[in-house]
Inverse folding.
């Protein structure tokens, strides 16, 4: 609390991004963990909570007549524009937030004070939900070709790797240690994914310290061991996910890439994904496009193209596709690395795994995938996502890109994933929120030292508890799309990559489809289930009655017309009823007298002048909006009573009375 | 909501008492109306040189004129052709795709059409004002606006039957010159002077509405594609000729079959229905921000991109809703 200069400011205005005239007045509170804005309205008192960890940047803008504007940009892409009446208050809030958003100690983070009211047992159980040993066993290792190695048990060999790694049977401890000395950050080749069907595998590492001519026997032996672990193929691919130029430049610094002459039986391949700095700038440019006020179609498309964002997403996807193909179709093992093997390598390995193995497309499997390729293999969450105040050059949207790749795949294969878009968005949110302990620090070693599992809670348990919200209604484990490998089209496919407004414009509800097909279908599914259960009950009763009767009454049940029968879904039609501003100029209506000439240029229909008021999208003040009368229209189960006016003989439903 | 063509004011600022009276009777005492002119103010002014023009304020005091320039004719046809080219180019790299999409300007036309229709709808619904829409001839952009506005405002136009009725009224009977406009396709090198994909633009806008309100239209994408196909080449007489007069002269109703009758058949009808439809009595206001307007892949990439997975998804939705 010592960093908070001003815990409360009144008469603050919160501006709406799309319509700067739509502002609400309320009170701003600063707490140790959140910034909270509470609306003044007597009925609604809507609250906006923002975690300090989410704050990416704060901008104090020039004071105007209405007050001093403060713009808060968040890592989950929420943008909050406040106007604080007094300049001095604004300055105090600004200084406080600057400090609060840049914690220096882990203990300042929300996860250490967050209390979901679970007991110790439940907390532990939560952490046990995802078990990597179980996962490797599920893959089929250890086996004849792969073994578990504890050479890193005290993090003595590589401090960013986990204590347990899987290596080829023929890789002795000596080879592992020798190889680790020849790899950047000591990140030696280790198993990421094993394909039971054909023994092909995906291994990951960092770049070799080969410079222009250095060699290392143990490292060469390591790669040979990987090859030998797959008897079905006489070579392995070595995939360097960097652009060739960057990799070559690294050679001057004593690092570089594998020379095909030195390593027997490898086929080397550059894939060309740009580095973290390029990605950081790309996201920045894309967000600038999102912040444009009333952009034209051109502004938007050019801005998006200029940022290069979708091009990068495609590059990551293409790399994943290449590796998945190598494993599934050619049966060849792949060793993947970038520079340090914790960014692009993680992205590419997890995309490839997702394509290859349907398990990772289930909710549990996805959590396992992130735990495996990101958490356990030492992706630098703290540096990349700014848990603590650090070097801004280390910040980069690496896992965001992976999550977007998953979303792009979901759009192309709507039936293939057990989870929905909301699942992805919530995971991204919590990677930055530091509300749970899963994504803290830079390595397993650091997390153990901080005793994360004893002091914080697991996000996976939280998501799992609420899994009903995250299901994809179109998913069926026996559907053809969910079996086996996914084959996204490689070319032509530029147009298949869409701008993800659900993520980057997440908080601008007006931009998204106003009716959620996912929610509707989930509700349908639920009701269907309920009706089926009722049907079962009634059928049982019927069977019992039949037994006790002489049985000369026929029963036929009529095929229900689902769409008419379905009455429990409450569509949120209120959103449908709010028009946005369709014109740009800001002249009010109808103040011009008729005599002012012919050229009456663009006139605005401003919200202020409209008769009915439409404050917030979520409020239902308009007479027209509101919930339809959706009473159940016909009795469920059994059949339909023939209508009274139909003179026809109904050879349709005739059912047993009573 | 009214529609017409441009008043023939001409360079000498002619007046027509009957026209003024007609527009006068539409409005009550002291009531204001809006005229939405689908030409830019500049173009409307220039039209006077050719005998056309706009309604002068002095002669039509109760009407306020708004200009919303909507492209039609040659520029629209070029825009369409460029987009089709960009989509079918196999060598197109990711680097320049969005730039090409943008330089075709097609999505800009969609945005403009939807915005104008929303403006008309807003005048009617929020301002309780009457609206007159016209461009030059009243057969192209005018119909685009009036038909879209009705879809936005009126739930009965969103049923299959209502939509058919809307098309009959606002496009066919209103005299959109289908024969001239849909003479050839965008892939043809012979570019007829009168060709323009207005009807396609309309259906694209309808598709945008269905994407933003997936539960509110009783029909699906398949209907839109079928309508488009038939506008260009058809076994039915529904889209023949350029006007009711021509159809009557050619005895279309006596010598051809109607597309609507075909679609009505139960074995056909179910293909075109939207399984997610549930009656929505409210006005549906679309977002016209660039993020909300997307490329109609089902049409533009129809023969280019395999749609198997999307079809499977559609089948799954059908299955879920029908409760197999």
């Amino acid at each position: 609390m010592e960093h908070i200069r001003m815990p409360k400011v009144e008469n603050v205005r919160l501006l709406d991004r799309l319509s700067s005239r739509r502002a609400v007045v309320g009170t701003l509170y600063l707490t140790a963990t959140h910034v909270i804005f509470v609306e003044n309205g007597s009925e609604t008192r809507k609250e906006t909570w923002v975690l300090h960890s989410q704050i990416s940047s704060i901008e104090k803008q020039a004071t105007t007549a209405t007050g001093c504007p403060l713009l808060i940009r968040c890592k989950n892409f929420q943008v909050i524009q406040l106007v604080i009446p007094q300049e001095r208050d604004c300055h105090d809030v600004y200084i406080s937030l600057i400090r609060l958003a840049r914690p220096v100690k882990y203990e300042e983070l929300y996860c250490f004070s967050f209390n979901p009211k679970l007991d110790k047992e439940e907390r532990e159980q939560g952490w046990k939900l995802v078990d990597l040993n179980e996962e490797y066993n599920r893959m089929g290792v250890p086996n004849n070709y792969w073994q578990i190695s504890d050479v890193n048990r005290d993090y003595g060999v590589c401090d960013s790797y986990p204590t347990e790694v899987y290596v080829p049977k023929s890789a002795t401890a000596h080879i592992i240690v020798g190889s680790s000395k020849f790899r950047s950050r000591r990140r030696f080749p280790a198993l990421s994914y094993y394909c039971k069907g054909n023994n092909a595998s995906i291994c990951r590492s960092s770049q070799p310290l080969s410079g222009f001519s250095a060699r290392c026997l143990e490292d060469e032996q390591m790669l040979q061991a990987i090859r030998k672990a797959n008897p079905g193929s006489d070579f392995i691919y070595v995939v360097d996910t960097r652009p060739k130029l960057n990799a070559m430049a690294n050679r001057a610094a004593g690092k570089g890439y594998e020379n095909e002459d030195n390593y027997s039986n490898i086929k080397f391949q550059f894939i060309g994904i740009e580095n973290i700095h390029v990605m950081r700038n790309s996201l920045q440019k894309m967000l600038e496009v999102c912040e444009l006020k009333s952009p034209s179609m051109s502004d938007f498309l050019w801005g998006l193209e200029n940022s290069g964002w979708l091009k990068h997403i495609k590059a990551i996807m293409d790399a994943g596709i290449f590796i998945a193909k190598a494993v599934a179709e050619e049966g060849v093992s792949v060793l993947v690395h970038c520079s340090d093997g914790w960014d692009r390598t993680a992205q590419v390995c997890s995309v490839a795994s997702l394509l290859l193995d349907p398990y990772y497309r289930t909710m549990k499997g996805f959590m396992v995938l992130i735990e495996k390729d990101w958490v356990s293999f030492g992706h630098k969450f703290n540096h990349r996502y700014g848990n603590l105040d650090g070097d801004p050059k280390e910040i980069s949207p690496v896992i965001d890109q992976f999550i977007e790749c998953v979303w792009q795949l979901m759009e192309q294969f709507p039936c293939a994933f057990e989870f929905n878009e909301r699942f992805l968005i919530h995971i991204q949110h919590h990677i930055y929120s530091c509300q749970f302990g899963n994504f803290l620090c830079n390595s397993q070693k650091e997390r153990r030292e901080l005793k994360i599992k004893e002091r914080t809670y697991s996000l996976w348990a939280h998501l799992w508890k609420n899994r009903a919200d995250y299901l994809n209604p179109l998913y069926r484990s026996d559907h053809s799309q969910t079996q086996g490998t996914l084959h996204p089209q490689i070319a032509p496919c530029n147009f298949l990559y869409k701008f993800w407004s659900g993520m980057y414009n997440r908080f601008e509800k007006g931009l998204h489809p106003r009716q959620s097909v996912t929610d509707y279908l989930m509700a349908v599914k639920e009701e269907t289930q309920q009706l089926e259960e009722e049907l079962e009950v009634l059928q049982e009763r019927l069977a019992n009655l039949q037994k006790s009767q002489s049985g000369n009454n026929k029963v036929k049940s009529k095929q229900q017309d689902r769409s008419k029968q379905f009455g429990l879904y409450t569509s949120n039609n209120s959103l449908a009823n709010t028009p946005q501003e369709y014109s740009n100029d800001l002249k009010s209506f109808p103040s011009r007298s008729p005599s002012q000439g012919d050229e009456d240029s663009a006139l605005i229909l401003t919200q202020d002048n409209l008769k009915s008021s439409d404050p917030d999208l979520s409020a239902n003040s308009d007479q027209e909006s509101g919930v339809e009368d959706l009473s159940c229209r016909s009795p469920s189960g059994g059949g339909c009573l023939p209508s009274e006016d139909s003179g026809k003989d109904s050879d349709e439903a005739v059912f047993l009375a009573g | 909501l009214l529609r017409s063509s441009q008043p023939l004011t001409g360079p000498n600022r002619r007046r027509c008492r009957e026209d003024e009276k007609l527009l006068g009777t539409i409005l009550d005492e002291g009531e204001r109306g809006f005229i939405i002119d689908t030409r830019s103010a500049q173009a409307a002014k220039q039209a006077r040189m050719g005998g056309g023009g706009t309604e002068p304020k002095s002669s039509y005091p109760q009407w306020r004129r708004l200009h919303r320039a909507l492209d039609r004719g040659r520029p629209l046809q070029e825009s369409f052709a460029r987009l089709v080219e960009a989509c079918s180019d196999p060598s197109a790299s990711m680097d320049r795709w969005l730039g090409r999409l943008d330089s075709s300007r097609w999505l800009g036309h969609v945005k403009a059409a939807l915005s104008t229709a929303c403006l008309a709808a807003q005048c009617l619904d929020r301002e309780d004002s009457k609206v007159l829409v016209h461009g030059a001839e009243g057969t192209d952009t005018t119909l685009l606006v009036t038909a879209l506005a009705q879809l936005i405002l009126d739930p009965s136009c969103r049923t299959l039957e209502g939509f058919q009725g809307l098309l009959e009224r606002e496009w066919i009977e209103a005299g959109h010159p289908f024969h001239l406009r849909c003479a050839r396709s965008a892939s043809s090198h012979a570019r007829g002077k009168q060709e323009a994909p207005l009807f396609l633009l309309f259906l694209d806008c309808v598709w945008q509405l269905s994407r933003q309100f997936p539960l509110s239209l009783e029909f699906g994408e398949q209907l839109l594609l079928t309508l488009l196909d038939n506008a260009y080449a058809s076994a039915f007489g529904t889209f023949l000729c350029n006007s009711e007069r021509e159809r009557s002269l050619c005895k279309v109703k006596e010598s051809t079959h109607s597309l609507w009758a075909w679609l009505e058949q139960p074995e056909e009808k179910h293909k075109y229905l939207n399984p997610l439809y549930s009656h929505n009595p409210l006005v549906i206001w679309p977002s016209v921000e660039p993020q909300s307007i997307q490329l109609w892949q089902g049409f533009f990439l129809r023969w280019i991109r395999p749609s198997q997975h999307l079809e499977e998804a559609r089948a799954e939705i059908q299955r879920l809703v029908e409760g197999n």
User: Anything to note?
Assistant: Chain B touches chain A through 78 residues (CB under 8 Å). The two ends of chain B are 44 Å apart (CA to CA). The mean pLDDT of chain B is 91.
